[in-house]
Specification:
The structure is a single chain. The protein is elongated and about 55 Å long. The chain has one domain: Tetracycline Repressor, domain 2 (Orthogonal Bundle), CATH 1.10.357.10. It contains 9 helices and no strands. The model has no long low-confidence stretch (mean pLDDT about 80). α1 packs across α2, α1 (about 5-25) runs parallel beside α6 and α4 packs across α5 (about 85-90). It is mostly helical.
C-alpha cells in the first residue's frame, strides 16, 4: 500500500522538526531514534521508513538547508562590496529553524565548514590580492566572523534588525572594536 505524498511529506517533516528542536537542546549523541519517534507521535519502525539513523536525518537536514540557501542565492545578483546579500540569503532560507539547530550550541563544526565552502563569501571581500600569502587567513577571518555574528544573531532571536546587524559588522570591519565602549555602548564613538 502506497501512502499519499502529502502524508509522507508531513511525517518526514514532523521527524525533522522534532529532531531540530532536540538538536537545539542537546548534542546529537544524546538524541535517540526512540525519543524522536515518541515526540513525533510515531513508532520507531515508522522513523526507519524515512531515515536509516539519526545521522541520516542530520544529513537530510543539512542538505535541505544548503539547497534552500543555494536557491536563495541563485535568485539574487550579488554586489562585490557588501555581505548584506549573503546575510539575507541565510536569513531568508525557508529552513531557518533547521539552520538555527545546525548553528546552535550543539551543531556540528562540519556544517559550518560546509557553509564556508559552499557559500562564496570570499567574493564579498573587495580587492583581495589572490597571490598574497595572507589572503587565506584574511578570508578565513572574514568568513568566520560573519558566520559567528550571524549565529549569535539567530541564537539571540534576531534582537537586531538585519540592517542593524549589517551596520554593526560593517563598522567593526572598518573601525575595529576600539570604536565601541567596552560596557554596553551600542554605537561607535566618532574619531575627533
Amino acid at each position: 500500500m502506497n501512502k499519499q505524498p502529502e502524508i509522507t511529506d508531513k511525517t518526514r517533516q514532523t521527524f525533522i522538526n522534532v529532531f531540530c528542536d532536540l538538536y537545539c537542546q542537546k548534542p546529537i549523541e544524546k538524541i535517540s531514534v526512540q525519543e524522536i519517534a515518541k515526540r513525533s507521535g510515531y513508532n520507531r519502525s515508522t522513523f526507519y521508513q524515512y531515515f536509516t539513523d539519526i545521522y541520516a536525518l542530520l544529513d537530510d537536514v543539512e542538505t535541505r538547508v544548503m539547497t534552500s540557501i543555494h536557491e536563495e542565492m541563485a535568485s539574487r545578483e550579488f554586489s562585490t562590496d557588501t555581505f548584506q546579500n549573503a546575510l539575507q540569503c541565510l536569513e531568508n532560507a525557508e529552513e531557518i529553524s533547521m539552520l538555527k539547530a545546525l548553528l546552535g550550541d550543539y551543531g556540528a563544526v562540519h556544517f559550518i565548514e560546509r557553509l564556508k565552502r559552499e557559500i562564496p563569501f570570499e567574493r564579498l571581500i573587495v580587492q583581495l590580492p589572490a597571490d598574497d600569502a595572507l589572503a587565506p587567513y584574511i578570508v578565513e577571518f572574514y568568513i568566520s566572523t560573519l558566520l559567528s555574528m550571524f549565529r549569535l544573531w539567530i541564537r539571540s532571536g534576531k534582537d537586531l534588525s538585519s540592517e542593524q546587524l549589517v551596520q554593526l559588522i560593517d563598522s567593526l570591519f572598518a573601525n575595529g572594536i576600539t570604536s565601541y565602549h567596552i560596557f554596553g555602548m551600542n554605537t561607535p564613538q566618532r574619531s575627533q
